[in-house]
Amino acid sequence: MNPNEVLRIVDSLHRDKNIDPEIVFQAIEAALTSAARKQYGEESDIAITIDRETCGFTGVCDGVELDTEVIGRIGAQTAKQVIIQKIREAERDALIEEYKEQISSMVSGIVQRSDGGATTVALSGVEAILPRSEQIQGESHHPNERVRAIVYEVKPQGNRVKVVLSRKHPNLVRRLFEQEIPEVSDGVITINELAREPGYRSKVAVSSSDQRIDCVGACVGVRGNRIKNIVDELSGERIDIVRWSDDPEVLIPNALQPAEVEQVLLCDMIGRAIVLVREDQLSLAIGRRGQNVRLASKLSGWDIEIMTANELEDQIERAVAGFAELDGMTEDLAQQLVEQGYLSYDDLSVIEPDAMMEMGGMTEDQVNAIVTEAENKAEAAERAAAEERRQQKAAERAAEQAAREAAARGETPAGEEATTEEAATEEAATEEAATEEAATEEAATEEAATEEAATEEAATEEAATEEAATEEAATEEAATEEAAVGDVADDAVVAETPVAVKGEELAVDGGGPQAEEKESTEM
Question: How far, in Å, CA of 205 to CA of 360, rounded?
């Protein structure tokens, strides 16, 4: 084997495959030793070494130095497959180390194919698996689609590397925040805690080291553009961003948003937080199938129990009465236990004996007896509840079976028949009510018509009276005008008479025609 060729191969493997040169040299030495044993015998004591600087070969077989030409022929003839295998193993180990360092980090790859729910994703130098169990519910991936996920597990599988990805891991949300929000990646905004139910909802508690930066507003972005990118990447998963606080009485109401909390009661001994809300906020605080309170509990680290003030009072009364029935339990001790958040036999069965001994001034034997009795009562209550559930399920199954048998016989089950009769009764009652309502409306209509007719008649009479009065007034006015005209005529006659008389007087004084004739003669 040419030493220069060996050096070139080692350097090429180191650059292209990221394999340590020492691993390659050791692989070649092991291959040459194995090949020499096949030639000289398996029991031969053979040792072959390679100089790391010059790549010169030296070998010893049973204390006798081997000729370099012999070593070269052995290596050229039989060591090829062993070297290839060692190189593959070294390449596999290098990939394992590379991806083990990336566990819990986010990687991006191209979807190659989907088989039986599992998706194969091409990463740098390896094909990773995204199992169905680590995919968000309801999402599907298509070939050549780019997908981002968390490196969940890395392990060797023969000569290959098995890399398992996850899109359900909570760190995926954390890495997306670091990628989409510069303040998070710079360390100005810190993600203190994160709780996630993949595909449905996540709660992220953040805080800011710079008082001038609003941690919640910076994560949401202008018009929600930053958080929208994260939601789209998570297939529409809802994300609640809450303000972190070291005080549980502040953090728990923030974690339960958008519900409004009236009061938080912390029970340090049992790690429980009793949250009081108004009746109209109860369902909102609990959330759909308990999702909101469950995520808030994970986020805050407290066992949160939601109830109204009246429910708390009733539960306290029942707990005090139940604890008082235990042998050796005093009313004062029962009250102290309730104040510390112990509201059931199950809670009392996990109490620390030392704490109870200190609270009640009891001996260890007395405390153990009380705890044992509480455990027995808790088990009895659990068995009773299980029996009640079993009976309820049995009754439901029996009803379903009876319904199926009745349907097969073409009969109506008793329950359905009763329901049918009840429905018929309700229908008859509805029709009767409708008839009465129609009769009432008809009577009201007739009464309204009668009143309307009377109103019209009164209006007619009033109009006739007004018309007669108008005519009478017109008649009187006409008579008045006629009388006025007669007076005017009489005045005219009287006015004309003096003129005629005056004319006559003029005629008498003037001598009449004779005077006129005399006047004309003189002219």
Answer: 40
Q: Using DSSP, state whether 59 is helix, strand or coil.
A: strand
pTM for this structure?
Answer: 0.62
Residues 369 and 354 in one domain: yes
How far apart are alpha carbons 127 and 120 in whole angstroms? Answer: 7
Q: How far is 336 from 144, CA to CA, in rounded Å? A: 64
Looking at the predicted structure, is the pLDDT value of residue 7 above 80? no
Nearest-CA neighbor of 382 among 345, 351, 431? 345
Name which of 38, 26, 44, 45 is nearest 83 in CA terms: 26
Same domain, 40 and 111: no
Residue 108: is its pLDDT beyond 80?
Answer: yes
> Using an 8 Å Cβ cutoff, are 373 and 326 in contact?
yes
Nearest-angstrom CA–CA distance, 4 and 479: 152
Cα 338 from Cα 391, distance rounded (Å): 33
Which of 160, 157, 6, 159 shows the shortest CA–CA distance to 79? Answer: 6
Q: What is the pLDDT of residues 11-43, one digit of tens each?
A: 887 777 767 788 778 877 887 787 777 777 777
Indicate whether 176 and 316 sit together in one domain. Answer: yes
Whether the bond between 253 and the residue before it is cis, its omega within 30 degrees of 0, is no
The pLDDT confidence band at residue 298, using thresholds 50, 70 and 90, is very high
Range of the domain at 188: 172-321
pLDDT at 193 over 60: yes
pLDDT at 519 over 50: no
Q: How many C-beta atoms surround the C-beta of residue 315 within 10 A?
A: 16
What SS3 state is found at 79?
coil
Residue 278, domain CATH? 3.30.300.20
Residue type, 448: A
Distances (CA, A) of 480 to 111, 450, 492, 494: 113, 44, 18, 21
What's the Cα-to-Cα distance from 237 to each of 88, 175, 201, 281, rounded to whole Å?
42, 15, 6, 23
What confidence score (pLDDT) does residue 407 get?
85
Crossing angle of the two packed helices 21-40 and 68-78, in degrees rounded to 10: 100
| Burial (Cβ within 10 Å: 0-12, 13-18, ≥19) of residue 205 | buried
3-state secondary structure 7-56: HHHHHHHHHHHCCCHHHHHHHHHHHHHHHHHHHHCCCCCEEEEECCCCCC
Measured in residues, the chain has a length of 523
The structural domain count of the chain equals 4
Burial 92-101, CB ≥16 within 10 A → b, else e: bebbbebbee
- The secondary structure of the chain in percent helix, strand, coil, rounded to multiples of 5, reads 60, 15, 20
**Do residues 275 and 304 make contact, with C-beta atoms less than 8 angstroms apart?**
yes
Is 484 a residue whose pLDDT tops 80? Answer: no
| Domain of residue 113, CATH code | 2.40.50.140
Q: What is the pLDDT of residues 383-435, one digit of tens each?
A: 888 888 899 999 998 998 888 888 888 765 544 444 444 544 555 555 554 45
